[in-house]
Design a protein that fits this description.
This protein is an alpha/beta fold. 64% of the residues lie in helices and 8% in strands. The strands form 2 sheets. A 4-stranded antiparallel sheet has the order 2-1-4-5, covered by helices on one side. Strand 4 (415-420) and strand 5 (423-424) form a beta hairpin. Helix 11 (252-291) runs antiparallel to helix 12 (297-330) and helix 17 crosses helix 19 (503-517). It starts with a helix and ends with a strand.
Amino acid sequence: MKNIVYALKILFRITPILVVLLVIINVLSAGQPFINLIFSQRIIDSYLADANWDTLIGYAIWAIVLNAGIVLGKALLNRWQEILFTQFELRFEEKLRVHQMNYSLEDIMSNRVQEAQRSIEQAKMRGFQFETLIPRIQSLIQGFFSLCFAFATFIQVFSLGEKSAVPSFWTGPFPLVLILTLSAGLSIISFRMQAKKNHQITKLNQEANAANGSAFAYMQLISDYHFGKEIRLYGLREFLCNAFEKLWSSSIGYRLMQKLGKEKALIPCMTALCNGVLDLCIYGLAIMKALHGEISTGMVLVYISSIRIFTQAVLGVVNTMGELLGFGELLEPYFTLLEIPEEQEEQEKEEFLPQKPYILEVQNVYFRYPDTKEWVLQNVSCTFRQGEATAVVGINGSGKSTLIKLLCRFYEPQKGCIRLNGIDIRHIPLVQYRRLISAVFQDFSLPALSMGEVIACNAQYDAAKVREVLARVGLDCWMQDKDVTLETALYKQYDGAGVEISGGEGQKVAIARALYQNGPCMILDEPTAALDPRTEAEVYESFHRITPDRMVIFISHR
């Protein structure tokens, strides 16, 4: 229930008007059956009392007008609701993605975040996502107001009852109290069983998610277009499909899904049983009251329908509450992601950085990644000075890139420290510290924005400076040949007129981006891996020429 309350707060915070619309629409939906009941009762009783046709036609016209008004009002409100629902989906997804973007790199790579993301993706494949909570909220609201309208109808039934009724057990309040007590008892039993079953279903879902991870990984591999060349070249299509089918059908997850289907099938059976018992009691009571003269023929319709709607609403609310409890557990991965704190970037009140020239000292640093036991770096000490170019060379897996991640403050060492001009870098505001660093990583990424925006990392940029750094990395001739301007988008995801670039060209763009930022510390983490030897030599020579006053750190395994 804590998760459900949290979800409602998020819904109201993002789109408060949607909540208001949900209430209005479901009030109209709950009230419409009772309008028809009341007018049907009056038409039947007026007809049996030999009322004139004007009265009957008047009741019919009022019923038609009110129904038409409700239908029209609901249609207009539903259209608005669909727009707001889509808006909520987009804004919630944006809120979640932006929050994740602001994690520290340590949190992004943690098992906790990875498992939560896998659970969300697999739940989406089964048709559940955060937005599917809203229809259940609608059912709950409609059920609540149906109870209110049914109670009001009870009062009308008793106030309009026949005064000539012969006093008996059936004309007293006891049968109605008996039905309401039976309804409450069945509702409690149904709720407990529903909640228990939904809890079991949620647990089975979680177990199935864990068990089916390998099978879904195969499925993602099959559909990943980056793997398309190997699938076609080596004839892997049939092999991968057979491997997926074998893994899925023999996995624990397959058996769990079968058990999950059986558990879900029990819930409609329980609801149907409770409804059947209540319907039998309601019809029997209405017939006996009519035979003893307490209610008129028209009132039989109102009596049966109102009690039936009441009991159905009670069971509906109970079942919805049981579903919500199950949904609350399925929402847990979302809140796991939302509750992880964002990386703190201190507000810049004053410049905290020491004076140039800068010296970075790595002192007796030990580091291992979260959720692992092996040390990647042990007792590492080294010094980087402004005005010097330092090469960090080692075999794959020796910890070169890990050292760079520590220098960029993506992670903090478990032991030892890194100092800038004698100051522990953990005591320097993160925004100010990272402004010192321009880096090109081996696994760099480029957004699908215009060339100028990609280089400057901003919508506003110095066009002359952008062209200068592009010329330094040798992309000026390529841009002329391809008719690429600073306004041309990279890739075609968002702009069909964009340009597709090779891996080597992409690395040059990433290097140009680092040059544009012009930080006093420049880090190149194997940035030339996709370049040909001639271009690689030109890049390094260019860096030696343009960075004589900077601290340059080259990472390489050759």
